Amino acid sequence: MQEKYLYEYAIIRVLPLVEREEFLNAGIILFCKKEKFIHVRYQLDETKMKLFSKDTDIEQIKKNLHSFEKIALGAEHCGPIARMDVPERFRWLTAVRSSVIQTSKTHPGLCNDLEQTAKRLFEELVL
């Protein structure tokens, strides 16, 4: 029997106008403590973003999303947060914040393949 992995995930949301609390799902973060696995995948739909607000700084949002990815990967040049261990990085990325980029609550699951699950969740929840 194939091993099952306990994982957690959160949806990355972009709120062009934070005060209106309207958001667009832009990515996912998937984490498995046992495998020391963390994966960020995102795609920003610029056309939909402009429907929320014509003044949205899309380039800045892209930079911030890219920072999420680099922190998840543990990129050395991304500062002290990126140097934390995998669980701490996941907790930091999914912490409650009131900024343009936020995450959903975390959700648990079981799977046989973490990469495939990340792909499936991304397709179901973002695309």
Summarize the structure.
By secondary structure, the chain is α+β, with helices and mostly antiparallel strands. The chain contains four helices and five strands.
Quaternary organization? single chain
**What is the alpha-carbon Rg in Å?**
15 Å
Low-confidence stretches: none
One letter per element, helices H and strands E, the order comes to EEEHHHEEH
| Average pLDDT metric | 95
**Class by alpha and beta content:** alpha+beta
Helical percent range? 25-40%
Number of strands: 5
Q: Number of helix segments?
A: 4
Shape: globular
Major sheet details: 5 strands, antiparallel
Measured by DSSP, the beta-strand proportion falls in 25-35%
Distance between the termini: 32 Å
